[in-house]
Amino acid sequence: MTARASGRARGGAGAFEAFAKRALPGLEESLAAALPAPDPRAPALRAALEAALLSPGKRLRPLVALAAGELTRAPKGAAQAVAVAVEMLHAASLVLDDLPSMDDARRRRGRPTVHLLHGVASAELAAVALLSRAFEIVAAAPGVSPAARARLVAELSRAVGAEGCCAGQSADLSADPTRLRLDDLEAIHARKTGALFVAAVRGGAIAGHASESALGALTLFARNLGLAFQITDDLLDFSGDPEEMGKDVHRDAHRANFATLLGPDSARRLAQELLETAVEALSAFGAKGATLADLARVVGDRRR
Amino acid sequence: MNKDGEISLGEARDRLRELGYLKSGVERLVFGRAFAGRGGVLLPAWLAGALAFAMSGLAAAWAQEAPLRASPAGAGVLVFHLFVASLVPSGLVVLVVRLLADLSSAPGRDSAAAALAAAVADLGLWIAGTRSLGGFATTALVWGIPVAAAALLHAAAIRSGFLARAFAHGLLPEGPRRRVFAGALSLAVVATGVLLAVGTPEERAVSAPTPIPRREPVIVVAVDGLRHDAPDGPDARAVVAMLSTGSAGWWPARPASPPELWMDLATGEPSLEHGVRALERVRPAGSPVSLRPPLGTRWYLRGVGPRIATVESAPVSSGERRRLTFWELAASSGLPSAAVGWWASGRWPGAEVVDNREIFGRAKDGAAADEAAWRAFLPLSSRAVATVYLPGCDILRNAAPERERAAGKIREWLSELLPRARAGEIVLIVLTADSHAAPAGSTGRMTVFDRETAAGLRRIRADDVAPSILARAGVPAAEDLPGAPVPELFASGTLETSRVATWGPRVAPAGAPSRESDKEYLEKLRSLGYLN
Lengths: 304, 532
Prior knowledge:
- The structure holds 2 protein chains of 2 kinds.
- Chain A is mainly alpha-helical.
- Chain A has helices at 3-10, 15-34, 43-54, 60-71, 76-98, 114-118, 120-139, 146-160, 165-174, 182-207, 212-239, 242-245, 258-262, 264-281, 290-301; strands spanning 107-108, 111-112.
- In chain A, α5 runs antiparallel to α10 (182-207), α8 runs antiparallel to α10 and α11 runs antiparallel to α14.
- Chain A is globular, with a radius of gyration of 19 Å.
- In chain A, 52% of the residues are buried.
- Chain B is α/β, with parallel strands linked by helices.
- Chain B is 48% helix and 11% strand.
- In chain B, the strands form 3 sheets. Chain B has an 8-stranded mixed sheet with strand order 6-5-7-1-8-9-2-10, sandwiched between helices. In chain B, strands 3-4 form a two-stranded antiparallel sheet.
- In chain B, α3 (43-64) runs parallel beside α6 (107-132), α6 (107-132) packs antiparallel against α7 (144-168) and α13 packs parallel to α18 (465-473).
- The interface between A and B is large, with 48 and 37 residues.
């Protein structure tokens, strides 16, 4: 097969789905294997961990990490480690977000939230365990240099720490929900949602020892993709079907979000433009960027 | 922000750009369509291409047609017609671009090449179109800006469409995206600069040269369709034999329409300069001018347009001529002049002109046309410069008996003039040429009977005819003409030898034939076999 033909085979509508179909079985297997060994003296923690990490999800973030790794020719084991770590961080953040002290959510991924199933204490412990396990995994990522491992730890730490998810969640909790402006929404979601997307993409690329210019392009892609993802999330919350989405919707009816601030049509348009910008940022990679480019299409089309 | 706290999309975009999003410029009009899986990514390229082609065509017509310059509304109407007419060629370009995009493995590079090719084509159409219609006067360069802008738009649309099409196949551009615009812009600047460097100054009307009148009137009889190399009957052979007693110059014939060929001879310049080409042009509805269909627009201007009555035919007329004929120049120089039956002749101050359409209007066939022309000519033949065009032999080229009778009449008329020329009362110049697809080796000929000039035949150029006639009438030749008087054909010392720099362009007098008259003329041209 020629280079062009192989590019065609990878690219186009459905490229991301094809990639996901190829990568998901291994990813799910890695996620299950990455959990600590069961401790008979802490069955509740084990159950909460499994509920948090292994419940069916879209796995967008780890797939993004894997795609970025493939794009930059990262060793498979290294990209897989980053993907698993990213999903663990994401799962931990969801568990914490859903707690009664925060969003007090009742459903997640089509199921009752972890704290409802296993209690708040187990949920909190599971979140902490997932966070620490994630760093443990990237710190031992195979096939990459010690410097790259250290950089991966730093990237993921920044994404979930006081400059990332924690800051976003704190800002979200302390904001007056009826007086949120565009800057506030961006600041919250760039940290709550975008930071982990950026970390996933950059993590996969760092595992592939990507150049700084490539990292810059991928960061631009991820930032725009992350914000577009959040806007579509707001749109779905605005008008989505709870059964189809598998989580509570219309919970934010009383608070400002992108859909209420801009109006649904403008919000949809803005999300589209962000996704186009994300795709444009992949120009430097040519046909190799087709998988990630198609992810942008998937985000634009998402219904849940 | 409105009273409900909502902000506009524009405000959101601006703020997000400040926050580091939406940084990369995207041709959203097309790229967004591809992104969303919608078709028509090359639609803007199609429309922009038609616009660019139309602008190039309008610019070329503007350089040629003076009435267009005085009618912005007419130019607007014309550009609309040209836009419609350019949809097909632009569509073909888009199909090629689509094919290339589907085959491309490096869309960034290939789309840039396609865009540059489109810009080059647009500029090339403008330059070639303008040059083919009469050279690049410096003022024509004012069109460089809108044509280049349209070409840039076309290039941008081609590139975006190409990329979007490639993206639909999963390919992304691999390099910097903006160089194509810088490239196309540079190309436009360079092209304009080159044209400025080679552009000719805008022509200005100049005062007519002062003649030194001669005693003898100069009578020019132009006979179309008489072949010296193959006379096909006794009368035709008799005419040829009669002409062989004069002092003659010959030139190789070339295929051309009758108006083009005879205006070459009457103006002393090629059709590129004098502007008369075909028997028929097109006039889009609402346009103040008729024109030759620009490249790629024939399907509409000659095909669909006339069928749906948005375009009509316009016969050849003096309005499209940009150079003075010898009788016009003689009249402008103060010599009484007359011209009967010539193509694209038209009214001219100081000259008595009976136009070709008037003569044809009185004739049912070629012989009758000759008769009408000769009858109109006789009362005017005492002018200092008088000429008549006899189309009969050409019209009757497929009717041997009638053609022979026409030749007989020509023999009779020339026989009347020849003794007067031999006696020095007049100078008789007979022009013969076959304007219908002259075969290789056939010739045109100027035969001079000027007092006792000896028989002879020499090679001259068709461009020498008008300067020779005028020099014999006492009008100085122009230095900017390709031809020059041929003194060897005339009585010794009779030609005016002084020169002027130029005869200048022809500025058509106001007034044009009516549309009704145009229709009648076209019908007559059809009935006489000139048009299908």
